[in-house]
């Protein structure tokens, strides 16, 4: 295989014999390499084959920005999931899991925490996936020496559930319909000249799928951040207006009224999208 692009010292793009593009990851695989150079197979430790879709572009942006040790850690976890639980993660799901683990490890090193107020409900609803998520915490500690808090098991559980381990076709179709409608609102809200960051869009889509799932399962987030809600209403009026439009759409389409907490997290993600597209919009 020949290199089509060099992302960094540890990741390159390459065109496979069947014409698909793959992101090849490995220590030094991109070091001192240029487009057209041959790939050394001995340096390739993980291969992510991504389709030519907008979602794949977002996945690629996230992957190449991740610290290589986290990509390697996630690859080893993915292998164990396959060997011990017969769970095959798609490249997109593996990248999302790596992105989450990178953020969780950053929070751990900075001694900050992310409270999971759905931990009890997640554990009760997705018992099998939660037990697997607890194993993932053990594997992270074994492989990296870092013990993530129990709250992270709840978040990892949702990633496993979102991978489709317990989903069904009807729910998938309903989710896709809701996501499509919301993204039409977001595109209309953003300035026509705005260039949306693929990584931020993908994170927003992941969050949005969780929101829709909680609507269908009647497990929306509630309460706890009134001061932040009030502050963001004042400092992020544009994002708030868009979030309220999304809330109206979801209510009209599915008969569900978003809680203030769900609107709050939509505002946070929308503000990130807005500021990434136009840094001058930051307050």
Q: What are the main properties of this structure?
A:
4-stranded antiparallel sheet, 3 domains, 283 residues, globular, Transcription Regulation, Sacy, Chain A, PTS-regulatory domain, PRD, alpha+beta
**Can you tell me the residue ranges where pLDDT is under 50 for at least 5 consecutive residues?**
none
What is the alpha-carbon Rg in Å? 20 Å
Major beta sheet summary: 4 strands, antiparallel
The total domain count is 3
- Quote the distance from N terminus to C terminus: 47 Å
Q: How does CATH name the architecture of the largest domain?
A: Orthogonal Bundle
Q: Would you tell me which CATH topology of the largest domain applies?
A: PTS-regulatory domain, PRD
Shape: globular
The side-by-side strand order for the widest beta sheet comes to 1-2-3-4
Walk me through the structure.
The chain has 283 residues and is an alpha+beta fold. The protein folds into three domains: 3-54, CAT RNA-binding domain (Transcription Regulation, Sacy, Chain A, Roll), CATH 2.30.24; 68-165, PTS-regulatory domain, PRD (Orthogonal Bundle), CATH 1.10.1790; 169-281, PRD domain (PTS-regulatory domain, PRD, Orthogonal Bundle). It has eleven helices and four strands, in the order E-E-E-E-H-H-H-H-H-H-H-H-H-H-H. The chain has helices at 54-65, 68-85, 91-109, 119-125, 127-144, 150-165, 169-189, 198-217, 226-235, 237-254, 260-277, and strands at residues 3-8, 11-15, 21-25, 46-50. The protein has a four-stranded antiparallel beta sheet. Strand 2 and strand 3 (21-25) form a beta hairpin. The protein starts with a strand and ends in a 6-residue tail after the last helix. The mean pLDDT is 85.
